[in-house]
Specification:
Oligomer: single chain
Number of helices: 0
Strand order of the largest sheet: 1-2-3
Largest sheet: 3 strands, antiparallel
Shape: rod-shaped
Strand content: 25-35%
Length: 87
């Protein structure tokens, strides 16, 4: 019901930190280390999610753990990268 304010989902603000460092090893060779979501921040869980069960006790298989359509960042946590580039 779109007119019921109790059905609204309110999520908290989150800070996400991404970083990248690169070095030129040779005139045409560069290496970079980067990370997304370095502090492993996750969205707020949906209010009726507890141990893989919805509020009615039905298994959701983890599908409804986070409000996916509302999250401005991923739900997979930290990601680290190593990149080697030859130009």
């Amino acid at each position: 019901d779109q007119t019921n304010p109790e059905a609204d989902l309110i999520v908290g603000a989150k800070w996400i930190t991404d970083a990248r460092i690169s070095w030129r090893l040779r005139p045409r060779l560069r290496v970079a280390i980067s990370g997304a979501n370095l502090f492993d921040v996750y969205p707020d869980e949906t209010r009726d999610f507890k141990d893989g069960l919805s509020g009615q006790g039905i298994s959701t298989g983890g599908i409804s753990r986070y409000p996916g359509a509302l999250s401005a960042f991923g739900m997979n946590g930290r990601t680290l990268y190593l990149r080697l580039a030859y130009q």
